[in-house]
Design a protein that fits this description.
100 residues; mainly alpha; 3 helices; 85% helix
């Protein structure tokens, strides 16, 4: 029973693949061939790298990240200074004369 299901599943997948191949063959002259020709004419390594990584966008993101890091450092430095100030100049507890 399990083998029959496997065979029918494999047959359905084969039919789907056949339909996909037929569809690709039908579209080939219209879409795939021109796209491949365009890719062949371009300098793939350079333009693909530029399109994938977009150096102008990466540069902006790095600058924004650096600005955020600088602000975080400033904030942390201010917190440290405040804590040091509190530690050095905190009010000393004044004890009055003992009451009897």
């Amino acid at each position: 029973m399990g083998e029959l299901r496997e065979e029918s599943r494999a047959a359905r997948e084969a039919e789907r693949f056949d339909a996909l191949i037929e569809a690709l063959n039908a579209m080939g002259p219209k879409f795939i061939t021109p796209a491949l020709q365009i890719i062949e004419c371009q300098d793939i390594e350079q333009s693909l790298a530029e399109r994938a990584f977009r150096p102008d966008i990466i540069e902006r993101e790095v600058k924004v990240g650096a600005l955020i890091d600088r602000q975080i450092e400033k904030g942390l430095a201010q917190l440290v200074h405040l804590k040091e100030y509190k530690r050095l100049y905190k009010k000393k507890q004044v004890t009055g004369p003992g009451t009897m």
